[in-house]
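Suppose a colleague, Dr. K., hands you the sequence of a protein chain of 135 amino acids and asks what its three-dimensional shape might be. Before reaching for any lab equipment, you can write down a predicted structure in token form. Begin with the sequence itself:
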Amino acid sequence: MFGLTSALGSSLFATINSTLVQKIDHKIIGFYEISGAFFWITLYRLFDKTLLTETFNLTVTDWIYLTVLGTICTALAYVAGVSAMRTLSAFRVAPITNLEPVYGIILAFIFFGTKEAISTGFYLGSTLILGSVFL
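The predicted structure, expressed as tokens, is then:
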């Protein structure tokens, strides 16, 4: 039930985004969505009391990597995805979004090599994701 609810929410979100991007600049949409996610997650973690009790022992290199991942790999990629909805329908963007876990695992294998072995569960999960996307 949780998976179906999540799929429904994702579909509605993509449909609303594809409608909004026709009227509003994609950068503004991305800014509000990412800011909203940051606000609600921060609020939740404040009430959960995990935000104030968690400590980070990060080096300068870690902060640089987090900054690059947060800005280029998350925010910029997200805004580019919203921008693509201006010319592509939400239905065409959905397979790209749904295949993100598969892309991530393949890229991890490329970057990390055999340190992280790909199990048969990966192939079964990828087949399930690909089957549902193309179905």
